[in-house]
Structure formats: structure tokens, C-alpha cells
Design a protein that fits this description.
Elements: E1 4-10, H1 17-27, H2 36-41, H3 48-58, H4 65-81, E2 84-91, H5 93-98, H6 103-121, E3 124-132, H7 137-147, E4 156-160, H8 172-180, E5 184-189, H9 195-205, E6 209-212, H10 220-228, E7 232-235, H11 237-242, H12 255-260, E8 264-267, H13 279-289, H14 294-306, H15 312-318
Parallel strand pairs: 1-2, 2-3, 3-4, 4-5, 5-6, 6-7, 7-8
Helix pairs in contact: 4-6, 7-8
The structure holds hypoxanthine (HPA) and zinc ion.
Length: 319
């Protein structure tokens, strides 16, 4: 596995079924089944929402700082062992505060996991606070204002959860505040929503990266802009297959076409515990199923560092 930066993964999406069960027992939370194999057998998705329903339900087991530490440590240890040198991890703060967890516990657990993983493995990692689209724009603004005491614990903001019906235009206020705070800005767009969501994310939210962006390929003018401005697209092949946001066969994925267009694409796992694997598994799958040579695989790995928010000197040290 080539060294890579992973730029599109939801830390909560690395919650393996075994850890769901262990945390449920530790915290006295009920589950539909305490057998991880049975729990995992329920992971059959028809679209983004059918995944999100299960993902949010499982997150009811996360209660204490220790839980967040354990989740972060599990991902970072595994990622470091499989070639990830840098991780920019999304976290869904609102999910946890809605579940009654104080934000202090979320920040403390993840921050400690990042520090300890760096000491143990050398991996560099930071957090990106994602707003949940389905809770709306005012909730996003309020969440960001309330998180300001922890401003130094995250490097940027993102936008995730149910895409259709929740366009980027609803979140201009929160992203405006994030910009004035010097935070980086990214957004999921063009996963289920059309090219118009990508245009809005660029024009109204001033994002520096588009998460997914596959549907941008439907709009030649947009493709030209993404190429000219070298806007990073964080593509997640196994996620696209699992959520049916790409053709059913990986062999028909748009990734080679995106590379041929000169787009700055990278490979990412999105929610590795749910979609069939980590970033190395995504690389293995595209290597097997798509006609990509060593040069293109090298470009994808290189693009991941180019697209990261690390200062240039630190990037060079990791490549
Ligand atoms: N897409 C959108 N929102 C999400 C995802 C995803 O794959 N995972 C967690 N929140
Ligand atoms: Zn995602």
C-alpha cells in the first residue's frame, strides 16, 4: 500500500459492529441484537438514507469520553498500519449532543486518541466538524458558535447527512462564520444531489474541497471549473457501490473518466465499518476492478497529499 492521506472518512463510520456491541454492554444500551454478525447482517442499503438510519441508531452506544477515545484509537491504529500517514476525520458533533453527550467528552476523547496515535505510530490526524444537513442551517450556526471554546481542536467544517432536499444554500451563515474564524471548509455534494449542489457548495459556501462530487461529471462546465481550479474531489468507490450512487459494478465507476478529465481526485473510505473496507481495501478494489496502472495509482496517492490541509513542509515529510 502506497502512503496516503485519507481526507473523507467519518470517524463514526469506523465503528465496527464488535465495538457497537462492546460499548452497548459497557453503557447499558439496548440493541436489536448483541451478536455482531447478526448486527452486521442488517447492513443492507438501498440509498444514503437507509445507511444513515442504521449509522445513527448504532451511535446511541457512544456515551463517554472513553468511548470516543476507543473509537478514534481503533481507526487511527488500523489506518496507520495500512499506509495512512495523514487523516482528516469528519465527526458528527450534533449526533452526540442530541444523544445527551456533552461536547467536552467528544472533543476530549478524540483529541487524546489523536495525540496517543501520533506518539504510537507517527500518524498525523485532525478533526473536521460536520454539520448535519437534516437539522438545518440555524442548528449548524448554533452548533458552530457553541463549539468555539474548542476552536483549537478542529481544523475545519464540513457538511454531511441526508443530501437531497438540503442544499448547500441553507448553510451559508455557518460557513461564513467558519471562514471568518480561519477554519477550512468542505462539503458533501454531488453524491445523491446533482451538479447544482456542487456549484452551490463552491459559490455559496466557498468550500476548498468537494466530498464525493461524482455527479459533477454530468455538467461539462462544472468539470472545466473543477479542473481549472484543481478543486479536490474526495471519491469513495466502495461507498458508492454500497449506497448505489454509482453503477452496480465497480468496473463501471467514473473514476478513470474523472482522472482522464484532469480532476484532482483522491481515494477514501467514507464509512469503512459499513461499506466493505478501509482505504487500503478501496485501493485494492479499484486496482483489481478498474484498468488503472501504477502511474494512475501513484497519482491518486499523490493527489491525497496535495488535497490535504497540512502545511506544505509537513506534507513533504509524510509523502
Ligand atoms: N454521506 C453523507 N453523510 C454521511 C455519510 C455519508 O456517506 N456518512 C456519515 N454521514
Ligand atoms: Zn462521507
Amino acid at each position: 500500500m502506497l502512503p496516503v492521506a485519507e481526507l473523507h472518512m467519518h470517524i463514526e463510520g469506523s465503528l465496527e459492529a464488535e465495538l457497537v456491541v462492546a460499548l452497548a454492554r459497557r453503557n447499558g444500551v439496548d440493541l436489536p441484537t448483541f451478536d455482531p454478525v447478526e448486527l452486521k447482517a442488517r447492513y443492507r442499503f438501498t440509498d444514503l438514507q437507509s445507511f444513515l438510519d442504521i449509522y445513527y441508531a448504532n451511535l446511541a452506544v457512544m456515551k463517554t469520553e472513553e468511548d470516543f477515545y476507543d473509537l478514534g484509537t481503533a481507526y487511527l491504529t488500523r489506518a496507520a498500519a495500512s499506509g495512512v500517514r495523514r487523516a482528516e476525520m469528519f465527526f458528527d458533533l450534533q449526533t452526540h449532543t442530541q444523544n445527551g453527550v456533552p461536547q467536552e467528552a467528544v472533543f476530549a476523547g478524540f483529541t487524546a486518541a489523536i495525540a496517543d496515535a501520533r506518539t504510537a505510530t507517527g500518524i498525523s490526524a485532525d478533526l473536521i466538524l460536520c454539520f448535519l444537513r437534516h437539522l438545518g442551517g440555524e442548528a449548524a450556526t448554533q452548533t458552530l458558535r457553541e463549539a468555539m471554546p474548542f476552536r483549537d481542536r478542529f481544523i475545519g467544517v464540513g457538511l454531511d447527512s441526508s443530501e437531497l432536499g438540503f442544499p448547500p444554500s441553507l448553510f451559508t451563515e455557518a460557513f461564513g462564520i467558519a471562514g471568518s474564524e480561519g477554519l477550512h471548509r468542505v462539503a458533501h455534494a454531488g453524491e445523491e444531489g446533482g451538479p447544482d449542489y456542487v456549484w452551490e457548495a463552491l459559490d455559496l459556501l466557498a468550500v476548498e474541497r468537494i466530498d464525493h462530487g461524482n455527479r459533477a461529471m454530468e455538467d461539462p462546465e462544472l468539470v472545466a471549473r473543477l479542473r481549472d481550479e484543481q478543486v479536490p474531489l474526495t471519491v469513495c468507490p466502495l461507498s458508492n457501490i454500497a449506497l448505489k450512487t454509482a453503477p452496480p459494478e465497480l468496473a463501471d465507476h467514473l473514476l478513470p473518466a474523472m482522472l482522464a478529465e484532469g480532476l484532482l481526485v483522491s481515494i477514501n473510505s467514507d464509512d469503512p465499518a459499513y461499506f466493505g473496507g478501509y482505504v487500503n481495501d478501496n485501493f485494492a478494489a479499484i486496482t483489481n476492478e478498474l484498468a488503472l496502472g501504477p502511474e494512475q495509482l501513484g497519482t491518486l496517492a499523490e493527489n491525497s497529499f496535495t488535497s490535504s490541509f497540512l502545511p506544505e513542509a509537513e506534507k513533504q515529510a509524510l509523502r
